[in-house]
Amino acid sequence: MTFINYASREINCKIVYYGPGLCGKTTNLQYIFDSTAPQSRGKLISLATETDRTLFFDFMPLELGTVRGFKTRFHLYTVPGQVFYDASRKLILKGVDGVVFVADSQEERMDANIESLYNLEENLRTQGYDLMKIPYVLQLNKRDLSNIISVADLTAELQRKGEPVVEAVAATGQGVFDTLKAVAKQVLTELRKG
Amino acid sequence: MPDTPILLREQQYHQIKAVLARLRIDSAARVVFLVDKDGQEIATQGEVGNLDTTSLASLAAGNVAATGGMAQLIGEKEFPTLSHEGEKESIHISVIGRLLLVIVFDERSSLGLVKLRSKQVSHQISAMIEEISKSDYEDLDSPFAGITDEDIDSLFR
């Protein structure tokens, strides 16, 4: 949910990275964190298990710059991907302005992608949102691996509404900022509509 | 349904800041924040210093969301207050409608005093939130109404 403060001339928006377990949601945030100037971002908070699996969420505030005199800040969140953390995923979607679905391109993760996408639609619905109406980007991650499904097949299976599809290798940063830009652009365009 | 966006006028922002400033003095607290349930920081008063208020706001909201989820599982609507007491620093959170009042305090204050003062001020904050939600914002120029694709692209250069 967008928060516009006319006194401090700030606008804050919430973007959530969604997807199956180990698809690279946290890696996206980690890359953004590592490659952004410290003055433009806050801390990367990771509520993770001892084995570095996301337990509740990762969070990072990112200041993109000024638009029409207003500081534009994006709060980036990830959800825990593992199936049994569904209650936590629902909570994190509250107040979302834009969603990135990070799909794992590996053949053996196709079912997990489909299940997670279905779960996203369902959880958005319980929070009163419609996937077909909110700013949304599909990222096809892990394009550097050998056992991957073609972009055409993944797109045919996972694209829901003609949303931008970005090929990525989050670990090296390929496609990470393109994904963020694609979703941020849609969020700001929504604000223009008022 | 999702909550409507919060649009805060300058005057309302200063009113909120004034209430928080008073509360901070009355409760002998270190920092007082108002945060929305989605983790957006609305206003802060006190000895912020190096405190990462943005992260604290997000974690406070996550904390309330998680305990609220637990409350519903055992048949409660929500837990209206949460307290975490540390060796020196402590945090008290009260849920006021769609907002959270977060008070960080140390040994200069006590949980009893913080609870009392936050309860006393909660009606006032509640009334202010209602006024903010009811306000007619048609006269406010949206900073984004005239935004161009060029403006958006410029953020990523």
Tertiary shape of chain B: globular
Biggest chain pair interface: A-B, 46 and 40 residues
Please name the CATH topology of chain A. Answer: Rossmann fold
Distance between the termini of chain B: 36 Å
- Overall number of domains of chain B: 1
Describe the strand arrangement of the main beta sheet of chain B, using strand numbers.
Answer: 3-2-6-5-4
Description:
The complex is a heterodimer of chains A (194) and B (157). Chain A is an alpha/beta fold and 194 residues long. Chain A has a single domain, classed as Rossmann fold (3-Layer(aba) Sandwich). Helix content of chain A is 31%, strand content 28%. Chain A is built from five helices and eight strands. In chain A, strands 1, 2, 3, 4, 5, 6, 7 and 8 form an eight-stranded mixed β-sheet that branches. Chain A is globular and about 50 Å long. With 157 residues, chain B is of the alpha+beta class. Chain B has a single domain (10-154), classed as Dynein light chain 2a, cytoplasmic (Beta-Lactamase, 2-Layer Sandwich). Helix content of chain B is 43%, strand content 22%. Chain B is built from four helices and six strands; from the N terminus they run βαββαβββαα. Chain B has a five-stranded antiparallel β-sheet with strand order 3-2-6-5-4, sandwiched between helices. In chain B, β5 and β6 form a beta hairpin. In chain B, α1 runs antiparallel to α3. In chain B, 36% of the residues are buried. The mean pLDDT of chain B is 89.
